[in-house]
Amino acid sequence: MKKKFLYGVLLGIALTGTILFAADHIDAPAVTGSNSASLGTDITDLYAFQSPADNSKMVFVINTQGLLSPSSTAGAQFPSNAMYELNIDNTGDNVEDLVIQCLVKNNKLRVYGPVAPATTGLSSTVKTDGMMTEATVTAYGATAPSLGMKNGIQVFAGPRDDPFFFDLVSYQGVLNGMQSSFNNPGSDTFAGTNVMSIVVEVPKSMLGSATSINVWAESKIK
Description:
Distance between the termini: 7 Å
Largest sheet: 8 strands, antiparallel
Structural class: mainly beta
Strand content: 35-45%
Number of strands: 14
């Protein structure tokens, strides 16, 4: 069994060209802790969108370990005692009907599912009897990503430039009454920093027959 460690924001998304995301950078020390395992389970972003290359597929992205400098990215790793779980509600009751479970061990990403969960809620059991897709974790600076493909599913794990744009200086200026609005263009506070990403592309046919789904991500430790 695994227990919930940290969770992302619930997203509702139509299975079309819409892209939705939730972001949560720089959590409090009481949440992230100071050890590598805690930092490794800190989710910064969740993205869900239709594949731009194939509209019959959905892409899910879980980003972790925000604000990695280029010098620290090479040593960043996914903790071996953690599971990153994508929860998919396709009936509209905000309870997961399917899960996609992602684990990294021995520099290999293993993705199980989509599969019905053994239990719902805060605890999970790894569904190793379901479909499994595997990929080697892509190293920092690699010239090409290492992708795993099976049964129409494609997966990736490794460092990536943080795609989330946030103008912290203008945000603080607006809050403090020093400026009335954001600048256009703004200044990206996260420019030059990296995240550790897990990406899963799945055929829509594996997500049920609903025209829209709710999606949320969790990281769980043993």
